[in-house]
């Protein structure tokens, strides 16, 4: 995969069901961007499945896949959270939470059975999603006096840049979203135009 792209899910899936010896495992994949959204989604599932025994999950956040966590929620160590996280890695997705909700069926599955069940529940949930590839972009604000606007618009048109916001007044401000690998070049181009200022916007 190219360095400045990442994969994520377009939207959450309808719950999928995996059964093993009367235990039911419901798999959910949910798009998230923050840990607050992770906690909110888990709480919602706990309310929805309030009679379940375990709500095991793993998530991965950030365009560079840096932040992740796996939780066994009372199951034997590494029998649930890590198999779910393994599927996030296998599908190469980020900004995604996968929760597998277990209703205990009365028969213990053993660690091997649990690993298989949670891994399969996670896999089925992700397979039910549309996975998209996005570029890692940097947002810049380009500002200038109205008189210099033509210079800015010419560069935007020539380089086919993505404008996400613009304010046209005495002093104009245009927000552009630039693919990471092209960002330095674009910054240099605008920085070299007299009367034009460019600054990177925080994510």
Automatic annotation (TrEMBL):
Entry's Gene Ontology BP terms: regulation of translational initiation
InterPro entries: Impact (IPR023582), Impact_N (IPR001498), Impact_N_sf (IPR036956), Ribosomal_Su5_D2-typ_SF (IPR020568)
Domain of life: Bacteria
One Gene Ontology term, aspect cellular component: cytoplasm
Annotated ranges, domain Impact N-terminal: 21-126
Family: Belongs to the IMPACT family.
Designated name of the protein: Impact N-terminal domain-containing protein
Protein's organism: Croceibacter atlanticus (strain ATCC BAA-628 / JCM 21780 / CIP 108009 / IAM 15332 / KCTC 12090 / HTCC2559)
């Amino acid at each position: 995969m190219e360095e400045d792209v990442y994969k994520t899910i377009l939207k959450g899936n309808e719950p999928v069901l995996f059964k093993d010896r009367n235990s039911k495992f419901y798999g959910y994949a949910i798009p998230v961007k923050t840990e607050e959204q992770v906690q909110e989604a888990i709480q919602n599932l706990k309310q929805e499945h309030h009679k379940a025994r375990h709500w095991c999950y793993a998530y991965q956040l950030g365009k560079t896949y840096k932040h992740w966590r796996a939780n066994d929620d009372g199951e034997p160590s590494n029998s649930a959270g890590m198999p779910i996280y393994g599927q996030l890695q296998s599908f190469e997705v980020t900004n995604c939470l996968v929760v597998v909700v277990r209703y205990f069926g009365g028969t213990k599955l053993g660690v091997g059975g649990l690993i298989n069940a949670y891994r399969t529940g996670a896999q089925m949930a992700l397979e039910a999603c549309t996975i998209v590839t996005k570029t890692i972009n940097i947002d810049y604000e380009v500002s200038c006096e109205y008189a210099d606007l033509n210079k800015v618009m010419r560069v935007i048109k020539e380089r086919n840049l993505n404008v996400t916001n613009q304010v046209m007044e005495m002093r104009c401000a245009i927000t552009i979203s630039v693919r990471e690998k092209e960002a330095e070049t674009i910054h240099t181009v605008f920085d070299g135009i007299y009367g034009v200022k460019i600054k990177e916007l925080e994510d």
